[in-house]
Amino acid sequence: MTKVTIIFLLIFVVNLQGQSNSISEIEKAIFRFTNKERTERGLKSLKFNQELQELAKIHNKNMNDYDFFDHEDQNGMKIGERRKAFFPEILGGIGENIAFNKGYEIEGTAKRLVKQWMNSPGHRENILRKEFTQLGVGILVEGNKIYGTQVFGSLVAKILTPIPQKLDFGAEKEFTFEFLGDFEKKDITIFVNFPDENAKFYVSKTQYYTGVGSYKAEWNGNNFKFKVRFDKGKGIYKIQIGSKGEVFQEGIEILVE
User: Fold this and answer.
1) The domain 160-256: what is its CATH number?
2) Which pLDDT tens digit goes with each residue over 120-178?
3) Are 200 and 209 a contacting pair, CB within 8 Å?
4) What whole-number distance in Å separates Cα of residue 33 and Cα of residue 10?
């Protein structure tokens, strides 16, 4: 009896490992075919991003577990809100493609899903959007059902400093980020929005911002840092990062009391 049980478990593990390897190959093939669509049209290839892939896998699992097929999950969250909930440390633009199919094989499934997306105007737009620079692909197989999700990003930075839940008014804190942007480092833009909309942030003796501060990055290789003094009102401070004077709406929020 013991021997039979052990043999059964070993076969079960091998089958799971085989499926896991196949799923990984499908994900890689989708990534490859997606970049082929871009490069054939003169666009840059997308780079792999682990956090975006995790977001894709999370959504696949939700769709399967809660039996729905939609960009909005069982909690009413869309991709931007899921990014904030699961990976608040990454900053930049984000987009999502989803697909559902039945039956799978490595090359056939990958080609079919990418073709499916390319034949849909909204999904095609995501694949060919020049602003996107990163991609994560997730595949989930349940029986003969297959869920596929692509999460695209135009990510600019990832915070390496633990995000404080709360700071005291007047505190000063240094933040370190990893640079993820697809632009020159000299073009990075850092703004911090203050709770006090009338607070002045001087950049010279005569020039100042109102309600927001502009900060300069201090570089060390591919990482940069800057310090913020939290003395411009009590409430939510929001760190936003972008390039050439513009920042993404998504940011890191810190409560100051």
Assistant:
1) 2.60.40.10
2) 999 999 999 999 999 999 999 988 889 999 999 999 999 999 999 999 999 999 999 99
3) yes
4) 35
